[in-house]
Design a protein that fits this description.
225 residues; alpha/beta; Spore Coat Polysaccharide Biosynthesis Protein SpsA, Chain A; seven-stranded mixed sheet; 7 strands; 33% helix
């Protein structure tokens, strides 16, 4: 499929084990045109060298500041009408962008599209969510956004070291922006024990995001009083 330019942003920190496979899966997409932006977030391994080995990959490097700041750096460089985020340890099916961009073009009122996932070596403690029955829940790293929406929101909150994607979606919902979830498998997610976004225990970042939402709502009510 051919359509508008899509910017694919990959934030990486010491991800040399899986980055090559991730980039190969992105560059194998049956959609065009795309630009791939890898933001090396202060890696101390060979991640930057792996990114440089792909001629079609644009590499940015920065001091370690976390995935939210890295994605924001990629967003500043992005030229696409749409932005996809892919974690540096996952792989994507070849029709990912065709499926998601087709949907966004057909549904101009939708700001973000998510999909389903297949797991590579999932941990035994993962549970299925109550709404979709998805193991581990709907994967937020499957997202494709309208670039204008991301910029209007100010991108990701860099004060989050984990949970930055959940915080972003909460802010989108707060503004009434529509998020769609497709039944297609659009991500093959890898569990390797060092994942920032896959950890056991209560999601403290979600509680922080919800508290921030309540604080904003309270501030608006006080301003109108």
């Amino acid at each position: 499929m051919r359509g508008p330019l899509v910017s694919v942003i990959v934030a990486v920190y010491n991800g040399e084990r899986f980055l090559g496979a991730t980039l190969e899966s992105i560059l194998a997409q049956d959609y065009a045109p795309i630009e791939v932006i890898v933001v090396d977030d202060g890696s101390e391994d060979g991640s930057a060298d792996i990114a440089r080995s792909f001629e079609r990959v644009n590499l940015l490097r920065q001091a370690n500041a976390g995935p939210a700041a890295a994605r924001n750096a990629g967003l500043e460089r992005a030229k696409g009408e749409f932005v996809a985020v892919v974690d540096a340890d996952d792989v994507v099916p070849l029709d990912k962008l065709t499926v998601q961009i087709s949907y966004l073009l057909d549904q101009p009122h939708v700001s973000c599209v998510l999909g389903r996932q297949e797991w590579i070596d999932p941990p035994t403690w993962l549970r299925r969510d109550a709404v979709y029955g998805e193991l581990g829940g709907i994967p937020l790293p499957s997202a494709v956004f309208r670039a204008a929406t991301l910029r209007e929101l100010g991108g990701y909150d860099p004060t989050f070291r984990t949970g930055e994607d959940m915080d972003l979606l909460i802010r989108m919902r707060e503004r009434g922006l529509e998020i769609a979830v497709l039944p297609n498998v659009l991500l093959r997610r890898r569990f390797h024990g060092d994942n920032l976004s896959v950890v056991p225990g209560p999601p403290q970042h979600r509680l922080r995001s919800l508290k921030a939402k309540l604080d904003r709502s309270r501030g608006e009510q006080e301003a109108q009083a």
